[in-house]
Every structure is written in structure tokens, then in C-alpha cells.
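quick one, two chains, predict together pls
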Amino acid sequence: GQQLNQSPQSMFIQEGEDVSMNCTSSSIFNTWLWYKQDPGEGPVLLIALYKAGELTSNGRLTAQFGITRKDSFLNISASIPSDVGIYFCAGLGVLQGAQKLVFGQGTRLTINP
Amino acid sequence: EAGVAQSPRYKIIEKRQSVAFWCNPISGHATLYWYQQILGQGPKLLIQFQNNGVVDDSQLPKDRFSAERLKGVDSTLKIQPAKLEDSAVYLCASSFSGRSYGYTFGSGTRLTVV
């Protein structure tokens, strides 16, 4: 099935550093979403992007919807220990004739205090 | 607002056995989704309901998986018979109208098939 290519797969950083991750696809999406998943929990929505070129912030998080509608990135500034987890991008669009939400493989973020 | 409720949280079964998962979506959410998340991967959609009708089940292995949402509220997902490769977390999500900003996920059921 359709895959989103998310990178990097994992990151090991020091507390206070900035983080950047991105997602690319061969298909066009109408909406890009970024989720965070903690161990034993379901994904929680962080940011939603609805227009190509849109740049949206949520506290220390900033995400952009690529102009081509085939990519998106997420930045986290001044990381703190509670940012640890797995971050997923997801694209919402019409695939094989139906509206579908497709997830990337995830970026596992580890923070050294 | 209560979240999406799922049960059980964990299940261990032997291959070829049957198993069922239950999901109660957020009140008023017409759209319900079941996702399969294999360890180290992102969630993959298995089936999407709009009220009690199936909107998309193109990635549901219908020879062994079935799902229903009889009254348009809660839903069950069944696997019969289970295979080793079915070991995964099964996530249920709901949304008000199928629009992106309304997706809310439950905590999932972790299935281990031995």
C-alpha cells in the first residue's frame, strides 16, 4: 500500500537541542498531520496543515505543508524530556478512489538529559 | 469528553485461535476506524465505518478478519484464525465527520500470537 517516507528513523539528542524531521510522498495529499505516540498509548494529534505552503506552530512545535503537497516537516525547538516518543507524519488524501489517512514509519526521539 | 475506549488492553493467544477486540468511540462521532500497528511501523488502516456502513475495507484480510458496527456506535474487530504475523497493536479511532482534525485514537489492544 501507499507509504510515506519519514526520516530520520531515530534521533538521539541532548536536552535543549532543536529537532527536525520530515516526510515525503509520491502522492499529493490535501492535509498533512503530525502525531506523537507515547509507549502503550495511541497517537495524539500535534499539528494539522490544510494548505500548501502553510506554516503552523503549536508551542515549541512548528510544521510546514510543502508547496508541492508531497512533503511536510516538523521542527521541535529547545527539546525537553517529555518530548521523548515516536513522531508520525500522516497524509490525508484520495487514494484508489477513497479518502485515506496514510502514516509514515515514525521517528523515534530519544533525549539525553 | 471521554476518549475512545478499547478493550482488552492486552491479549495473548495461540496461533489458529480466535480473538475479538472492542471499541467504543467518542459520543457523536459517526466515523470509526480500525488500524493495525506492527512494531516499528506506522498505523495501517484496516477498515473505516461511517455510522454502521463500511466506507473502506480494502486493506482488511477478509479471509480471517471481520468487523462490525451494528448500531452505528461501538464496534468489534475479530480475527479467526489468528496467525503469528497478526501480532500487533490494534488501534481504534473515531472522528465527527471523517475530517482530519477530528481523529482521536484509543490506547489500543496489544495482541501477541504465539
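Chain A has a mean pLDDT of 92.
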